[in-house]
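Field reference: sequence -> structure
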Amino acid sequence: MSEIIVKDKKDMQWRPDWFLKQNKWDLHGQYDSLDFVDPDVKVLSIQFTKVGEKTYKAMPNLEWIVVRTHGFDNVNLSECEKRGIGVITSRPFTQSTADWVSEKIDDKDNVMFLGFGAIAEKVKAKNAHIINRTIRRQDLIKQLNDVNCLVISMTPEGNDNFVDEDILKNFKGKIISVSRANVINNTALLNNLDNISHAYIDTLDSKHREELLESNKVTYTKHTAWSHNFSYENNPYYYGDLHDMILHCLHGNVKDLEIKPVLDRVERVTF
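Structure field:
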């Protein structure tokens, strides 16, 4: 068996010839089971497959999980940490997602960024207020008076309902969100729609979703911002970057990559 398994192989159908010839990796579809025991696998690459205890038991020598998206909430991080497995995301869609956001920002907008990572730093905004993650909440709320456009690009971990009643009742203007659904409190959004000129939300929780959409003030794009003007076949970097990342993981050279891991691998010691 191969030391590398690539799951959710739909994006692999456009892989270039060199990628196919050079790499004899095991490719598996989204619905293929990974419950078979394979002690040879060291690197598992996924897009949307959920990875948890069953997979870890089936691959006892797994060292790295390479996620071919920005989010990684489909990976059980606590189990990875217990087993010393590293997790890294290839972030292939930062530019396309940033372009989706940029197209919704006007030159006259004063923009506040909640979360300033790989996507937000590529967004084009003339007047930007970047919020430091250590800011006191009361200071953040005061600064809302100075902006009329809120760009939400926070990671989902530890940010449940971050955009809540306190924020939304003190903000007036446009909202653009590419965060996961748990970051925005939909009840608070519904309660404060009078303050919102329009909200463009890429991932919207089901709670009050119909009411929000019926207001005509909320556009829900069903988690498609990542694919804005993006195609695998016309992206020369997608496969090259993925190839390099997987091989760096396989050979233990992750520290040389520009992208830092979500979770570092810890080498297991046996006695």
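Note: The mean pLDDT is 89.
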